[in-house]
Design goal:
Length: 309
């Protein structure tokens, strides 16, 4: 793909409706639920086609398989709370383990479904793939069928800003081979770096209590989840919590640059700690700043529709 073709695919799609799938480790944190709900509530612009449960492994899940299974169940819970049970038939289980090699996929229902849906699209009308987890499922689809790279645009939240000393970011280090396969695939890619960029997209307890808790059952669940989670470890009177994953959905709603700023760069090679920047790499889009207040306001207003403002 030429630079001009890549640049065209990486342009903000404007106000036209687009087909979207989302790959999420929903039980891992308290922010994936916000991202999925925000996507569901923007259905006029973002036509959700499928939801993929991604693997994760931490104190909430002893194995990648357990993380994926718990995420699958959490997706179903959010769909019920969002009064969108019809989407349950489009939820697919992802990989039960991480990649061991950047050339060897882990086949799952999610990766197979992504391939099928991608092949139904074209460079003129691509499928937008929102990744807010380790890139295992997305990378596995690309490794199985490399030709889908010309039919999709990937928006991946992961890694750190290039200028940051802190480079060991969760979505990246959970599956470094998958991230490398993603960045090496040649697929149009938008990266939202966590440390140094997205970490500044936060919400506070007073905001959650004033706007979301009284609104509706979905908002109550989202807000209470954050308050309970942060309350389990914070001893500060005043706290804020990053809700990272919302920003990946918001890139597709970034009309006029109201939510974030980005630029075209040459795709690096992600490592566990840092990046390599070889010559001759393809173009990708790199988000460098989040407009926190504008995005939080739109997020809350969107989720509260049907409730009070």
């Amino acid at each position: 793909m030429t630079d001009r073709q890549m640049e065209a695919l990486l342009e903000f799609p404007g106000n036209r409706p687009v087909d979207v799938v989302i790959d999420t480790d929903t039980f891992n944190e308290v922010d994936d639920q916000f991202a999925l709900a925000y996507l569901l509530k923007n259905s006029q612009k973002l036509r959700l086609q499928a939801v993929y449960a991604a693997p994760f492994c931490n104190e909430k899940a002893a194995t990648a398989r357990e993380g994926m299974e718990k995420s699958y169940q959490e997706i179903l819970k959010v769909l019920d709370l969002a009064e969108a049970p019809a989407y349950k038939e489009c939820v697919f289980k992802g990989a039960d383990r991480f990649l061991e090699d950047p050339r060897a996929p882990v086949i799952s229902d999610a990766s197979q479904d992504l391939i099928r849906r991608a092949m139904d699209h074209s460079p003129a009308s691509p499928l937008y793939v929102i990744g807010i987890a380790a890139a295992t499922n997305i990378a596995s689809a690309l490794l199985q069928r490399p030709e889908i790279r010309d039919r999709i645009v990937i928006i991946w939240l992961g890694g750190s800003a290039y200028h940051r000393m802190e480079q060991e970011e969760f979505n990246l280090i959970e599956d470094v081979p998958a991230a490398q396969a993603l960045f090496n695939s040649g697929a149009p890619l938008v990266q939202l770096p966590c440390w140094g960029v997205v970490e500044h997209f936060t919400v506070s307890k007073p905001e959650l209590e004033q706007y979301l808790l009284p609104a509706n059952p979905l908002c109550q669940y989202l807000a209470a989840n954050v308050i309970r989670e942060v309350g389990s470890y914070s001893r500060d009177l005043c706290w804020s919590k990053t809700i990272w994953d919302v920003t990946a959905v918001a890139w597709l709603l970034n009309d006029g640059g109201r939510f974030m700023e980005d630029r075209l760069v040459r795709a690096p090679v992600p490592l566990k700690a840092g990046y390599e920047f070889p010559d001759g790499r393809h173009l990708m889009r790199y988000v460098r700043h989040i407009q926190r207040d504008a995005l939080v306001s739109d997020l809350f207003q969107t989720l509260m529709k049907g409730g009070r403002l």
